[in-house]
Amino acid sequence: MNKNNHNMNDKDNHNFNSQTDDAEIMDNVPEASEENESAEDIENAEMSQIDALCKQLADEKEKVEKEKKEYLFLMAEFDNFRKRTIKEKGEIIKNAAESVLKSLLPIVDDFERGLEAVKNTSDADAVKEGMVLIYNKLIKFLEQNGVKPIDSNGTEFDPEIHEAIAMVPVDDESMKGKVIDTPTKGYTINDKVLRHAKVAVGQ
């Protein structure tokens, strides 16, 4: 009788222990599932973040490419504008030079007629009068194109418009530092020095 009771107790204990182990396993299963779900959520979040960053990077690359194309287009436009401006400026200068030279031709014609007339006359006054007329015509032409002579004699020496080529002793104190003579006349064009006057200065 005792032996049977002992065997039953052992069986009951075994069954109890088995139930206890199963309970413990069942208790651990939800925790493992929760951990798996948590890891999956993290992985999904990371993938979503990576996808977002990749999309942002693609958008930025697209913007850079667009701005690069716009920059290259603007550079090409500016280069065309620069070349066009240089060409137009060159044409303006060329046309201006042609206009000036063309306007000089009548004066050359007058010189040629004067030289021809000198061959057939011995009248010095007539030759002189012809030269004066041609000179006045040339001076008028220069003035019409903004060219004017620089008045130097008796004025204070000014390195901006004068070039001293000699120093001349003077007795008059008031003439010291002033222009005594102008061997080569200077000219301005539109108030800018075209050629400095070469002068002798009193000292």
Structure notes:
With 203 residues, this protein is an alpha+beta fold. It is built from two helices and six strands; from the N terminus they run H-H-E-E-E-E-E-E. The strands form two sheets. Strands 1-4-5 form a three-stranded antiparallel sheet. Strand 4 (187-189) and strand 5 (192-195) form a beta hairpin.
Please outline the helices and strands.
Layout: H1 2-119, H2 124-144, E1 147-149, E2 162-168, E3 179-184, E4 187-189, E5 192-195, E6 197-202
Helix pairs in contact: 1-2
Summarize this structure briefly.
With 203 residues, this protein is an alpha+beta fold.
Which H/E pattern describes the elements?
A: HHEEEEEE
Question: CATH homologous superfamily of the domain at 149-203, by name?
Answer: Head domain of nucleotide exchange factor GrpE
Number of strands: 6
CATH architecture designation of the domain at 149-203: Roll
Key descriptive features of the protein:
203 residues, three-stranded antiparallel sheet, elongated, disordered N terminus
